[in-house]
UniProtKB/TrEMBL annotation:
It is a multi-pass membrane protein. The keyword Transmembrane applies. Pfam families: BPD_transp_1. It comes from Vreelandella neptunia. The chain crosses the membrane at residues 20-45, 188-205. Residues 21-209 form the ABC transmembrane type-1 domain. Belongs to the binding-protein-dependent transport system permease family. HisMQ subfamily. Keywords: Amino-acid transport, Cell membrane, Membrane, Transmembrane, Transmembrane helix, Transport. InterPro entries: AA_ABC_transptr_permease_3TM, ArtM/GltK/GlnP/TcyL/YhdX-like, MetI-like, MetI-like_sf. This is Amino acid ABC transporter permease. Its main location: membrane. It is found in: Cell inner membrane; Cell membrane. The keyword rRNA-binding does not apply.
Length: 225
């Protein structure tokens, strides 16, 4: 007889699955908000700040984009204590995910900002806007609208990459799967279920962000028609 599947063996572990799902969702939501906020600041400074600031931020972006996320996570959680900076697991995961998302998103935003014609800024100032108002309404919002789909994809990538935070004992979905598998030894059923949950999370995130984008950037879409 061949192997038999028994998903009912997962029922006693529903609470662990819900705990892992909750942690993953909260981590994703918080790091998406903070990561994108930091990305806006980094993108702005990389375009408008003094050369030494641009070089420093460029170094941060390149270092983050060219090293594995798990190494960044381990450096924060295991490396910083060597300097006397002790961080708990969930905080380390939050910091690593935020910095990772911010670095990638900053480059995406910088491309959108660079596509804005300088004449538009001058037109904004001619209308009596301050420099900050011109940047916000004339540069930043249209740039966000242009690169919004790419930002959504990057946020989803970070959510999927959050699975590695289980390596520092953060009780996320992957940690829950490893925990359950170590108890009932039903590896196929456990990891198939977790795969489907991640898939649903990715689809749900994309759909939700697209709906938000349609409302927030509705006037931008109207202008492009």
């Amino acid at each position: 007889m061949g192997p038999t599947l028994d998903f009912l063996t997962l029922l006693p572990y529903v609470s662990e699955l819900l705990k892992g799902l909750t942690t993953t969702v909260i981590l994703t939501l918080v790091t998406t908000l903070t990561g994108l906020a930091l990305a806006v600041a980094v993108a702005y400074l990389r375009v408008n700040a003094q050369p030494w600031v641009r070089w420093g931020l460029g170094g941060y972006v390149e270092l983050t984009r060219n090293t594995p996320f798990i190494v960044q996570l381990f450096f924060i959680f295991f490396g910083l204590p060597g300097l006397g900076i002790k961080i708990d697991a969930i905080t380390a995961a939050f910091i690593a995910m935020t910095l990772n998302l911010a670095a990638y998103s900053a480059e995406i935003l910088r491309a959108g900002i660079s596509a804005t014609a300088k004449g538009q800024l001058e037109a904004g100032r001619a209308l009596g806007m301050t420099t900050l108002q011109s940047y916000r309404h004339v540069v930043l919002v249209p740039a966000f609208a242009r690169v919004y789909p790419a930002l959504i994809s990057q946020s989803i990538i970070v959510m999927l990459g959050s699975a590695v935070v289980s390596q520092i004992s953060v009780f996320d979905l992957t940690y829950a799967a490893n925990f359950i598998q170590s108890r009932n030894f039903r590896s196929f059923e456990v990891y198939l279920l977790i795969t489907l949950v991640y898939l649903l999370l990715a689809f749900g995130m994309r759909r939700s962000f697209m709906l938000v984008g349609k409302r927030v950037f509705a006037y931008q879409q109207g202008e492009q028609r």
